[in-house]
Amino acid sequence: MRKQPGGFTPTALIGAFLLAAMVALALLAPVITTDTPLQTDLEGALRGPTDGHPFGQDRLGRDVFAQVAYGTRASLLIAVSVVSLTVLAGVAAGAAAGYVGGALDLGIMRVVDIFLAFPGILLAIALAGVLGPNLGNLVIALSVMGWVGYARLVRAQVLSLREREYVVAARAVGAGPWRVVARHILPNALSPVIVQATFSAAGVIIAESSLSFLGLGPQSVPTWGGLLAQGAAYLLYAPHIAFFPGLFIMLTVLALNLVGDSLRDMLDPKSRP
Amino acid sequence: MIGIGRRLLLLFPTVLGVLTLVFFLVHLIPGDPVELMLGETASRADLGQLRADLGLDRPLGEQYARFLGGLGRGDLGRSFFYRKPVLAVIGGALPATALLAAAAMAFALLVALPVGILAAIRRNRLPDRLALIGSLVGVSMPNFWLGPMLIILFSFRLGWLPVSGREGAASLVLPALTLGTALSAILVRMTRASMLDVLGEDYLRTARAKGARPIAVIARHALRNALLPVVTIIGLQFGALLSGAVITENVFAWPGVGTLLIQAITARDYPLVQGCVLVIALCYVFVNFLTDSLYALIDPRVRT
Amino acid sequence: MMPPRLVPLLAATLMLPVVLLGAACSGSRPADPGTLVVGLEANPTNLDPRLATGAAAVRILPLLFNSLLRLDPAGQPTSELALSWEMPSPTAYVFHLRRGVRFHDGRELTAADVRYTYDWMRDPKNHSPNQGALAVVSSVETPDPGTVRFVLKEPFASFLQNLTLGIVPAHLGDAKDFADAPVGSGPFRWGEWRPGERLVVLAFDDSWEGRPHLDRVVFRIVANETTRLLEARRGRIDLLWNNIPPYAAAFLREAPHLAVTTRPGITYQYLGFNLRDAALQDVRVRRAIAHAVDRDRIVKALFLGLARPAATLLAPENWAHAVDVATYRHDPDLARRLLDEAGFPVRPDGSRFALSYKTSTDRQGIEMADLVAEDLAAVGIRVERRSFEWGTFYGDIKAGNFQLYSLRWVGITDPDQLHYIFHSTSVPPAGANRGRYTNAEVDRLLEVSRREADPAARRAELIAAQQLIAADCVYVSLWYPDDIFALAKRFEGFEPYPGGQYTSLKQVRATH
């Protein structure tokens, strides 16, 4: 497979195309499907794919295709929110720990270790219990669990970049720590972060589905995870309910991974496979 | 050796931090364990009495201090619902989870290492493409979907394996497969990437130029160095493995700590929740300690 | 230090025999006619009848323990350990015990054990969940080893219903680990218990009722519904009861080795109102909501017709069931009129007002909530469903922190429960009047019926109370779901008891 210099492989293009399709689906859901994805139709409960309902109908006769389309919105929204929040928090913590070092570093890394060792499920249940299960709280729960990975990553990057000549030079010239970090270190540290972000987005989509499985997900909007959880309960009689959201999760994760791979190729030639 | 000692020391604040977090978290979740224990026929006096007996009417700080004190003595308290010492309750469930996690890990390694290596050697050819697709599929299938699918196929339609429960070696297969799939998918990519890095190194080219056979080159030099990042990743992923065990245990009726934790949370069984989280955190921390030490041992270049 | 290349090899050699062994062992075992496997969805947490709460434990305990009285399938107290009884005064009950009853360890059960058990539960130090129900007892006396006398503080018509608690041996009951290997006098004795996994009980040869036909009963705990159903289809679980969703009945019927039976049930499903809420305190609003809900549609869609419409808490089988109570037929037009009358016209945005509807994470509860929300939306009430994890949900409804919620009352056979649920002093934690309902006449009727000695008068009082409660629309009575159980055809003789107890397992035998 020939690669253009610093360019896109065909697989990366597939990934990008898939992502674009998902975004389009999210935006155009009301147009493509219907205004009321949660409209019940009890006569058709658990019916498989038919002309009017290409993905079949769920337990209350709701159109699975419409729910999957609207679910794209929820999933993408959750993924983007969580990744943004975790990247922001993680980069800030990791940069501070890596650059300042000393007690701050030790403290932040201990907090990171604590969060890594903590079973996320407990945190999610606690948050859902205290705050109520909805989209916002799901984002909070997933963000609280996810920022630590970036902290570790950025810290390692900052540590290695801290002693580079241009950074030392900047410090010698008298640049304040904020300036040094923001202008010299971070731009070079960010490429693994960007790569990791695409992979985390995939993970968030899976995590959302697991939390919805436990009943902690958003209630009144269709989500892939919610559909998947329902599908798991009716797997024996109506496998289509689980199949289609599962398929879309897989495709989105595939797309994100392909894009992530190619970003890694472009941004960090050393780690080229 | 000093490195190991120091790393061991650093475990304490981490575990302590986890315990503190879980203590306050669990006490702050709405829901009163005393009401859940005594049911709705209890009078206010009864509730108050039980609350006092369990020490739940004291200020939170004091309860926390007592909790730590008990820990120091090795006493994790008594479970509210089982009315037995927490250690006994968890001790009953822990071997099951440990077995499941170990089996999942073994399965993941068994699949990922050879596949990853093969993908690296036959880069960009069919084995590589297949490995990529397989790993992407593997990482995007949630446990609670994969589990029932495997049950339907292997238990229901084919009748080869039991549906659920922990009875005999056969019952371990599907749960381990379910739990280990995501991990193996990640490990495949990791192994492949790591192998490729190493295969491109100069010293390998020199070895080959000197006439060493490819297999020998791979086995002796590449593998050892390629496995280092894999070892670290295993440690990091162990936490995800334990979380995944919760759902896998539910699907397969596997009597482990994950199921216990969920039950304990629902029942607001504070001592049991704290005990389970402690055990989970200790396992995670210990496994990472092992992998870090292993890393140091394998690669003499690394020193903390 | 092992060369890394051997690691995968080692793993392979470890896994291979496991897989081969597994494949060899997994063939179906010949079914043992003496062993019956029951599938449970929840783990019984405690097997001491003095302490046990939770449906899972309470349903299994009658196999291990006997009680003074037992409830028959119609919910009436009948003799078990007590051969006969009389009431010398309105506050005294004297029971004459059956002789020759042995505990599983061989010792004879006497009045001393009965007194020990009840005194233990009444002792506040022990924190028994039954303490509250026994607060009306002032003393328990044993004039001789075959007689027990209960003295009450005041007359209590439903007292006999409280005597269905298992009797524990006095000589063993103080052991700290009694619950780990409980000893009772029931038809089965404790065999093995792996919490969270399985509970095994074995036939007790010297049972006063005669040895059960079965040798052992294995209770397997399988929380995941799909897994449980698959195990039953594969023949690894012989009995499923109270955990079969209606649409799964057809799936189980496909198995030639299973017989699926449905019987009318007494579980009562309802919508609860918070009567202190600004909108819901008006009875017209509550009635409007009752008229708006299309019960038939939901029963057909979610229960596949396997439920009977309900109008009152006590099921038709109950001796105090009220027949002439207000019912609220599905009539959206009437609902709209009532809402207009009550001062909630339709606003410009199309709705009248909004309500929050809280449920647990139970799947059927959520599906039902979505359908009810549609019905209410059709008359202009915007409903927001909020599902919470059980502990949080339960805490909220007890605290009165809700507007609408739905739940079920399971196994209600004692009409005195009406006092527990609808009396104005029964607000949690003192009772289950979560909606904070107050009606002086209902209070009076319930109090009088508690002391009423004449059964006919008592019945009339209870019926009058139910009629008032229905007229006030304190709950929207929904339905009584049918009892569904699946039993492997190689067994016969299982009878579902209204409280969910597995008592009839002592009669179950292999079919010939």
Describe this structure in words.
The complex is a heterotrimer of chains A (273), B (304) and C (512). Chain A is 73% helix and 0% strand. Chain A has 273 residues and is mostly helical. In chain A, helix 5 (135-161) runs antiparallel to helix 7. The model of chain A is unreliable at 1-6 (pLDDT under 50). By secondary structure, chain B is mostly helical. Chain B has twelve helices and no strands. The N and C termini of chain C lie far apart (63 Å). The relative contact order of chain C is 0.14. Chain C contains 13 helices and 21 strands. Chain C has a seven-stranded mixed beta sheet with strand order 8-9-10-1-11-19-12, with helices on both faces. Chain C has three domains: 6-46 and 186-262 and 483-510, Periplasmic binding protein-like II (D-Maltodextrin-Binding Protein, domain 2); 66-178, Alpha-Beta Complex (Dipeptide-binding Protein, domain 1); 268-481, Dipeptide-binding Protein, domain 3. Chain C has helices at 6-25, 55-64, 111-122, 225-233, 246-253, 283-292, 295-303, 332-341, 363-378, 390-399, 417-422, 440-451, 455-471, and strands spanning 35-40, 69-71, 77-79, 82-89, 92-97, 137-144, 147-152, 188-194, 198-203, 216-221, 239-241, 258-263, 268-273, 307-309, 353-359, 381-387, 404-409, 475-481, 483-488, 491-492, 509-510. At the B-C interface, helix 2, helix 3, helix 5, helix 7 and helix 8 of B face helix 1, helix 4 and helix 10 of C.
Summarize this entry quickly.
The complex is a heterotrimer of chains A (273), B (304) and C (512). Chain A is mainly α and 273 residues long. Chain A contains 9 helices and no strands.
